[in-house]
Amino acid sequence: MSPAVLQAARTLWDFHRIHDQLSCADVIIGLGSYDLRVADRCAELFHQGLAKRIIFTGKSGNWTGALYPGTEAEAFAARANDLGVPDDAILIEPQATNIGENIRFAKAMADDTVRRVILVTKPQTQRRAFATVRAQWPGIEPMITAPPTRFEDQPTAAYPLDMFIHEMVGDVQRMIDYPAKGFQIAQSVPASVADAFDFLVKEGYHHHL
Question: Is residue 96 domain-shared with residue 178, that is, in the same domain?
């Protein structure tokens, strides 16, 4: 992979990440995916006392059907159990197939007392999660976080670097297209990010468009 492609990918990575200051919330919501490190982060925040409940949300997706015996939410819950989170602190939402459904279905499971939530997702989907929750759960105070994974360490054997870059490119396009559909709030895309997006599309990273 060329240095130019890696540099453009890092530009998207930096754009997608959000560094919210975390404080106590009513619930932690873990967005299911191929990345069990998200469940690890949820368990860490639970043990820090930042919330007393975790909702894990996610069905089996394109990349996870072969990874887990059940749904993403069930796999994340099992990982949290292994890390000492008790069953009675976990709710499982096993139907969501995208971030919009993650948010809507978790909202439906939450009671009316929920006012502050911590959303835990992959580093490269933080901004998309922020834009989605702002549009689809108005009135809630969201805090966005992710495992503290380095760019170099984010790809996995099951989800290698090429797929990771395709995903980041696709999410930039969704940030441009989805506000008009009501799926996300509008966000400014810096010129450097737009240039990196255009370059990567021309280099063939368009499978998620």
Answer: no
